UniProtKB/TrEMBL annotation:
Gene: pyrF
Lineage, top ranks: Bacteria, Pseudomonadati, Pseudomonadota, Alphaproteobacteria, Rhodobacterales
UniProt source species: Pseudosulfitobacter pseudonitzschiae
Entry-linked NCBIfam families: pyrF_sub2
Pfam families assigned to the protein according to its UniProt record, in alphabetical order: OMPdecase (PF00215)
Top EC category: lyase
Active-site residues, as the UniProt record annotates them: K94
Protein name (record): Orotidine 5'-phosphate decarboxylase
Length: 279
């Protein structure tokens, strides 16, 4: 089964377009978990256990594990998600390099960590993308228009062909780079106008959308802009740290449930398709 088929099944089963970010930081965890020998693993798996009927995907960001010298925990966490849920895992690694090195990154993401999808940096061109997309059952989300405030420094640059750089990335990623139909794009919830332009270019291609919650993106505006194709709305901190007491997983569940329902209600009001269409 392909990554997008897995997302479509999870979307339908859980009636959800919510991608739950798993970005554990030891110092931010509830006190009682911080003392735990397996703090990162126990924190993340408690959130997974509490939300596995609410998510259409999980997205661990590799930096949060690497920075705590816990790449083995990331591996165990992805194994745990595969063993206890049918929800696909997007490894947010934002990799990309010359082709021979990207091939190693692809092995890292798909064979070492066993992720179902990865985020990739388009800056090196097809050399930084093709080694990922050659795994045709895996998904590749190419960074297109990111949610951070300095993103325009490069992504909005006007090219000789009259397009912005992020529009050019959207064009390439939806055509030449998408031979196996396994490419999606990362577009920030903080930039609804640009998301609308991207949707125009890429048709129904799935968009991974971070920037809701802690980064302040408007759900209503981004759904209006990005609807008309698959959307995976990501939130990490607002769910991970919804509570700081022993009931933190229940609080995370509450935050995830609220966001999931808000996404569905907003999409219903806009009356537009937001399903990943690779069924
Ligand atoms: O444009 C981008 C691309 C990736 N991210 C990542 O998504 C999450 C967002 O976390 P929140 O806590 O919900 O703000 C995080 O892992 C980022 O590295 C992004 O924010 N924007």
């Amino acid at each position: 089964m392909t990554f997008f088929e897995k997302v479509a099944i999870a979307e339908e089963k859980n009636n959800s377009h919510l991608c739950i970010g798993l970005d554990p930081r030891h110092s931010q965890m509830p006190q009682h978990i911080q003392q735990d020998e397996n703090a990162l693993f126990d924190f993340c798996t408690a959130i997974v256990d509490a939300t596995k009927d609410l998510a259409s995907s999980y997205k661990p960001q590799i930096a949060y594990f690497a920075a705590e010298d816990a790449c083995d925990v990331l591996k165990s966490l992805i194994t745990y998600i595969h063993e206890t849920t049918e929800i696909p895992v997007i490894l947010d690694a934002k990799r990309g390099d010359i082709e021979s090195t990207t091939e190693r990154y692809a092995v890292e993401a798909f064979e070492v960590y066993k992720a179902d999808a990865v985020t990739a940096n388009p800056y090196l061109g097809i050399d930084g993308i093709a080694p990922f997309t050659s795994y045709s059952d895996k998904g590749v989300f190419v960074l297109c228009k990111t949610s951070n405030s300095s993103a325009p420094q490069l992504q909005d640059c006007l090219l000789q062909n009259g397009h912005r750089l992020y529009e050019h990335v959207a064009e390439l990623a939806s055509t030449k780079w998408n031979k196996s139909g396994n490419v999606g794009l990362v577009v920030g919830a903080t930039v609804p106008e640009e998301a609308s332009a991207v949707r125009e270019i890429v048709g129904q291609m799935p968009l991974l959308i971070p920037g809701i919650g802690a980064q302040g993106g408007s759900l209503s505006r981004i759904i209006a802009a990005a609807a008309g194709g698959g959307i995976l709305i990501n939130s990490a901190r607002a769910i991970n740290y919804a509570g700081s007491e022993p009931d933190f997983a229940d609080r995370a569940r509450g935050a995830a449930m609220t966001l999931k329902n808000e996404i569905n209600e907003t999409a219903r009001q806009k009356n537009k398709d937001v399903f990943v269409s690779y069924r």
